[in-house]
Amino acid sequence: MSIQIPRGTQDILPGTVEKWQYIEKVAKELCEQYQYKEIRTPLFEHTELFERGVGDTTDIVQKEMYTFEDRGERSLTLRPEGTAGVVRSFVQHKMFGQVNQPVKLFYNGPMFRYERPQAGRFRQFVQFGVEAIGSDDPSIDAEVISLAMELYERLGLKELKLVINSLGDKESRIAHKEALINHFKPRIDEFCADCQMRLEKNPLRILDCKKDRDHELMATAPSLADYLNEESSAYFKKLQHYLTLMGIEFEVDPNLVRGLDYYNHTAFEIMSSAEGFGAITTLCGGGRYNGLSEDLGGPSAPGIGFALSIERLLSALEAENIQLPVAAALDCYFVAMGDQAKDKVVELTYKARKHHLHAEMDTLNRKMKAQIKSADRLKAKYVAILGEDELNEGSIVVKNMETGHQENVPFEKLVDYLKQS
Ligand code: HAM
After folding, report:
1. Among candidates 110, 105, 81, 109, which has minimal Cα distance to 93?
2. Could you tell me the maximum CA-CA distance found in the chain, to the nearest angstrom?
3. Are 155 and 279 in the same domain?
4. Distance between CA atoms of 392 and 413, rounded to whole angstroms?
5. Full domain range(s) for residue 124
6. Are the CB atoms for 77 and 47 separated by under 8 Å?
7. How many domains does the chain have?
8. Are residues 127 and 31 in the same domain?
9. From the DSSP assignment, how many helices (H) and strands (E) are in the chain?
10. Residue 133: its H or E element
11. Is residue 314 located within the same domain as residue 341?
12. 186 DSSP β-pair partners
C-alpha cells in the first residue's frame, strides 16, 4: 500500500495554496499598518518552556504535546502554540531594552497538537498571531483585538462574534480560586480524575472540563466577575470603552476561560456565527499574560496577543461563501508548430520570463490544437503562435484571447507588446 499522510495533517495543493498566500499577504500588510514586525522562532523548543509557559495542568501540556528526546537526551517539544516561544525570544534577546516599546511582533507558522482530528481540528495547523509586549494599557488590548477583527473583515467575513472577559489580576484570581476550591471540594469525588487533580492546583480548569460540563455544580460555580478587585474592573471597563470608541461590537461572557494558564485580565475569542460552520466555532483566541516573561526568567513585561488558525479561517470563508481574489495570472502561452519553431519558442519564453512576464509553453510536443486548449485552460491573456512562415519573417502571431484581436509582432518587439497591454 502506498504511504498516506499522518492523521490530522493535510497537503495544501496548488489551487488551494493561492488562498493561503492571499490570506498571508493581507495579514502581513495589516501588521505593517499596525506596526507589528515579523518574528520566526523554532518549530521545537525545550519541553520545559511549555510546561512553565502554557502551564502543566492544561490539556495542551498534559495530553497534546509532541514531545521527544533528541540524540543528546534533551526533552524537546514541537511547539503547540506561539506565545511561549515568542516571549522566550523576547527575554533571550533582551527586547525589553529596545528603544521602541512596546515590542510588537507577529508570526505565521505551523503548530502541533495531538488532538482528536475533526473538522477544524488538526494535529498540524498554521497559526497567524501577534504579541505586543511591554505595555499594560488597555488601549493596546483594544488594538490587538481590533487587528484580529480587521483581518477577518478585510477578507470579507461578516458573521463574527467577539466575546470578551476579564480574568482579573493575581489578587482577584487568588480570591476566586479559593472560592472555587470551597465550591467543588465537598463533592470533588463526583468529578473526573483530571478535575480531582486540578482542584488544588488550578480549579479554574475544572470549568473548562468536557467530561464534567453537565455536573450541577458547574452552573452554580462562583463567577470570576464577582471577584474582580477595583483595579481589574477598571481595566476591563476601559477596554470596553476603547472597543466602543472603535465601533467594535462585543459580548461580555463571564464564563470565557481560555485553555492556557498564562492569562490574566483580558481574555477574548472571536467566533463564526455563520450557518453551516462546524461544531467548533472559535476562529481566534487571545488575551493578556502579564506574568509570563517573569515565569520564563525575564523581567516584568506585560503582554497581550492572539492567534488564529488559517484552517478555521478558510472554513469560515467557505461557510459564508466568500471567494478570495486569487486568479492565477498568465500573460502569454507560446505555441510552436514544428521543430524549428520550437527552438525559437524556447528562446522567446525564456526571454519573456526574464522580463518578468508570466509565460508558459508546451513541453509535451503536442499538436497545435492541444497547445491552444492548454492556453485556454490556463486562462492566458495572449497566445503567441509561431509557424514556419512567421519564423522566416522574424515575427510571431499574437492573439488576444479576450477580444480575439490578432497581430503579427516582430520578435524584438514582442516583450514590449506583451507588457504594454
Ligand atoms: P488557542 O486558543 O490555543 O490560543 O489557539 C488559538 C487559535 O488557534 C484557535 O482559536 C484556533 O483558531 C487555532 N487552533 C487551535 N488548535 C487548533 C487545531 N487543533 N486545529 C486548527 N486550529 C487550531 C493560543 O494558541 C494562544 N497562543 C493565543 C495567544 C496569543 N494568546 C496570547 N497570544
Report:
1. 105
2. 96
3. yes
4. 16
5. 17-169+229-319
6. yes
7. 2
8. yes
9. 15, 16
10. strand 124-133
11. no
12. none
Same domain for 162 and 248 = yes
Domain end position, chosen among 319, 342, 370: 319
Any domain includes 34: yes
> Going along 289-394, which residue ranges are E strands?
303-309, 332-336, 359-361, 382-386
Ligand 1 atom at shortest distance from the alpha carbon of 289 = 32
CATH of the domain at 354: 3.40.50.800
pLDDT, residue 421, reads 66
Grid cell listed for 71: 540524540
Q: 307 with 237, same domain?
A: yes
Residue 335: what pLDDT? 96
Which atom, in ligand 1's list, is nearest to the CA of 127? 8
Tell me the whole-structure pTM to 2 decimals.
0.92
CB of 203 closer than 6 A to ligand 1?
Answer: no
Residue 49 falls within a domain, yes or no? yes
79, 142: one domain: yes
45 is in an annotated binding site: no
CB 284 near ligand 1, within 6 Å: yes
Burial status of residue 149 (CB atoms within 10 A of its CB: 0-12, 13-18, 19 or more): buried
Alpha-carbon distance of 94 to 98, in angstroms, equals: 8
Any ligand 1 atom below 6 A from CB of 81: yes
What string of DSSP letters covers 139-187? HHHHHHHHHHHHHHHHTT---EEEEEEE---HHHHHHHHHHHHHHHGGG
Helix or strand holding residue 385 (H, E): strand 382-386
Q: Is 326 exposed, middle or buried (0-12, 13-18, 19+ CB in 10 A)?
A: middle
Pull the grid cell for residue 403. Answer: 477580444
Residue with the smallest CA separation from ligand 1 atom 15 is 309
b/e 367-403 (16+ beta carbons within 10 angstroms → b): eeeebbebbeeeebbbbbbbbeebbeeebbbbbebee
pLDDT at residue 358, as a whole number = 97
Q: Nearest residue CA, atom 30 of ligand 1?
A: 306
215 in a structural domain: no
342 by DSSP, 3-state: which? helix
Which residue ranges in the chain fall short of pLDDT 70?
421
